[in-house]
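RECORD TYPE: inverse folding
INPUT: C-alpha cells
STRUCTURE:
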C-alpha cells in the first residue's frame, strides 16, 4: 500500500457504516410499511466533485432502501448537497431550503438534510441551527461516509443532528455509488486543495490535498469501462499535484499513462489543472495517450501579474502564455478553456485590460467567467475593494463580448472538419441528436436515437456561438 495510512478510513469503520445501512433499511421498512419505496430527492449544487459526492449519497441511500424522485414535493427525504464557491450559489440554497418549510408542513415526517461545502463552514451551520428549524440533519464534507449512521439516528428519534468536524480530510474507499448517467462518469483521483488562492473557500471546506491509490483508481476506471461508460473525467482541485502525498513516486502523467492502457474505446478527460504545476511532461503524455482528449481546462483567473500575485496563483502571465504555446504545439487541435475572475479586490481597469489581452493571445475555445465574490475567512475578503458592482458588471460584459468574437472564430474554424463525437442524447431540434467532440464542444446533427452512447464520425457543416452543426458520415 502506498497511501499514508491516517487519511484512509479503516475497513472496520466502513463495515460499521454498512451495518448502519442495514439497520436503516429495517427502520425504513417499518416506517413506510404502506409504501413501495420511500423516496429521496438529492440535489447537488456546484462542481463535479460535489456531483460525485451526491452520487455517493444516492448510492448509500439506495442501499438503505430509498427510491429517488426529481422534486422535493413527493419526497420523504430531501438532501441538498451545497456549494460555497460563490455567494449566488449560497443564496440559491438558502432560498430553496426556506421553501422546504411548506413541504414539511404538508408532510411532517419528511426528513430534510443539508451537506457539502456550505455546511462545512461553522457560521453557515450556526445560521441553519438558529434560523431554519425545519432542517433535521446537517453534515460537512468530511462526514459524507457517516451518512448511514446519521440517517439511522435520524430515523430513531426526532432530534436534530449536526456533524461538522474540523479535519484535514479523509479518503473513504468502497462507498456504494449510484451514477447519474450511463455514458459519462466522474472519477475522483484526489480530494482537497493546498493552494490557498486568496479568493477561494475550497481549501477551507475540503481539507488538504490527498491522493487516492493508483490501484483503486484504475480498478474503478476498469469497472466503469466494463459497465459501458464511454467517457471518464478524472477529478481533483489540482490534478497536477496527484501523487505528491503518496510514497510510490507516481505522478499525474504516469497515472494517465496507466489509465490510457486500459482496453476499450473510451475517452479520458481531467479537471482541473493548475497552471503552476502543469508540466511539459504532462503535456507530452497527453500527446502520447490516444484516449486522453485534446482539451485542457487551464484556469488563468487574470492576465495581470499584479492581480495574479494578489490572488496567490504563483505564476506570471508570461509563464502561462509559454505553457499554452507549448501545449498547442505539442497537441494537435488542442482546445484550451479557462476560468476568469473579474473585479478581484484591488483590480484596476489596466489589470482587466491585461486579462483581455491574454484571452486574445491564447484564443480559448470557451471561458467560464465570474465576478469576484467575497468569501468569509479567505485572505481576499480582507483586501480593500474599491470598484463598484456596476463597474465590475461593465468589465464583465466587455470580457464576454471579447470572448464571443474569439469563440466564433474558433468554432468557425471547425467547419469542414471531421470530428469523432460521443453521442449523449436527443438534440434540441426534433430528429437531431447531440454529443460532444474531443474538445468538449457540443455537436448537433440529424441521426437516430439508437446512436446515443456510441462514438460516431461527424462532418462539421456549420457553427453557432456555442455549438457546432454536423452531418453524420456514412
Ligand atoms: N469569486 C468568484 N469566482 C470564484 N472562483 C472561485 N472562488 C471564487 C470567488 N470567490 C472561480 C474560479 C475557479 C472556479 C471554479 O470558480 O475561477 O477557478
Ligand atoms: Fe481554489 Fe485555487 Fe484550490 Fe482551485 S487551486 S480550489 S481556485 S484554492
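DESIGNED SEQUENCE:
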Amino acid at each position: 500500500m502506498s497511501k499514508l495510512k491516517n487519511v484512509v478510513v479503516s475497513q472496520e469503520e466502513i463495515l460499521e457504516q454498512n451495518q448502519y445501512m442495514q439497520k436503516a433499511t429495517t427502520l425504513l421498512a417499518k416506517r413506510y410499511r404502506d409504501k413501495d419505496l420511500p423516496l429521496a430527492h438529492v440535489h447537488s449544487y456546484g462542481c463535479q466533485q460535489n456531483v460525485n459526492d451526491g452520487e455517493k449519497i444516492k448510492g448509500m441511500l439506495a442501499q438503505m432502501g430509498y427510491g429517488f424522485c426529481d422534486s422535493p414535493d413527493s419526497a420523504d427525504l430531501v438532501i441538498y448537497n451545497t456549494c460555497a464557491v460563490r455567494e449566488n450559489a449560497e443564496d440559491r440554497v438558502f432560498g430553496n431550503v426556506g421553501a422546504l418549510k411548506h413541504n414539511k408542513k404538508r408532510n411532517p415526517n419528511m426528513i430534510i438534510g443539508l451537506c457539502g461545502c456550505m455546511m462545512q463552514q461553522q457560521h453557515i451551520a450556526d445560521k441553519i441551527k438558529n434560523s431554519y428549524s425545519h432542517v433535521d440533519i446537517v453534515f460537512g464534507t468530511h462526514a459524507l461516509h457517516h451518512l448511514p449512521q446519521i440517517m439511522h439516528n435520524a430515523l430513531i428519534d426526532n432530534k436534530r443532528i449536526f456533524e461538522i468536524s474540523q479535519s484535514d480530510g479523509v479518503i473513504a474507499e468502497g462507498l456504494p455509488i449510484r451514477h447519474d448517467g450511463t455514458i459519462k462518469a466522474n472519477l475522483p483521483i484526489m480530494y482537497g486543495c493546498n493552494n490557498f488562492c486568496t479568493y477561494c473557500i475550497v481549501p477551507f471546506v475540503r481539507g488538504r490535498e490527498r491522493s487516492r491509490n493508483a490501484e483503486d483508481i484504475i480498478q474503478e476506471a476498469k469497472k466503469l469501462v466494463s459497465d459501458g461508460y464511454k467517457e471518464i473525467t478524472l477529478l481533483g482541485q489540482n490534478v497536477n499535484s496527484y501523487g505528491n502525498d503518496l510514497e510510490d513516486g507516481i505522478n499525474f502523467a504516469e497515472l494517465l499513462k496507466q489509465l490510457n492502457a486500459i482496453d476499450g474505446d473510451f475517452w479520458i478527460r481531467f479537471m482541473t489543472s493548475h497552471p503552476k504545476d502543469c508540466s511539459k511532461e504532462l503535456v507530452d503524455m497527453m500527446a502520447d495517450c490516444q484516449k486522453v482528449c485534446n482539451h485542457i481546462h487551464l484556469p488563468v483567473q487574470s492576465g495581470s501579474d499584479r492581480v495574479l500575485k494578489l490572488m496567490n496563483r504563483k505564476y506570471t502571465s508570461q509563464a502561462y502564455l509559454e505553457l499554452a504555446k507549448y501545449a498547442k504545439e505539442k497537441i494537435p487541435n488542442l482546445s484550451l478553456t479557462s476560468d476568469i475572475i473579474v473585479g478581484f479586490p484591488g483590480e484596476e481597469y489596466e489589470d482587466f485590460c491585461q486579462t483581455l489581452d491574454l484571452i486574445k493571445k491564447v484564443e480559448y475555445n470557451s471561458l467560464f467567467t465570474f465576478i469576484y465574490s467575497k468569501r468569509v475567512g479567505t485572505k481576499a475578503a480582507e483586501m480593500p475593494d474599491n470598484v463598484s458592482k456596476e463597474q465590475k458588471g461593465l468589465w464583465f460584459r466587455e470580457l464576454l463580448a471579447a470572448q464571443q468574437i474569439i469563440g466564433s472564430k474558433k468554432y468557425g474554424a471547425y467547419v469542414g472538419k471531421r470530428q469523432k463525437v460521443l453521442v449523449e442524447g436527443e438534440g434540441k431540434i426534433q430528429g437531431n441528436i447531440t454529443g460532444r467532440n474531443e474538445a468538449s464542444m457540443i455537436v448537433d446533427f440529424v441521426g437516430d436515437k439508437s446512436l446515443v452512447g456510441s462514438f460516431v464520425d461527424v462532418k462539421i457543416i456549420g457553427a453557432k456561438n456555442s455549438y457546432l452543426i454536423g452531418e453524420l458520415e456514412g
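NOTES: The chain has 13 helices and 19 strands.
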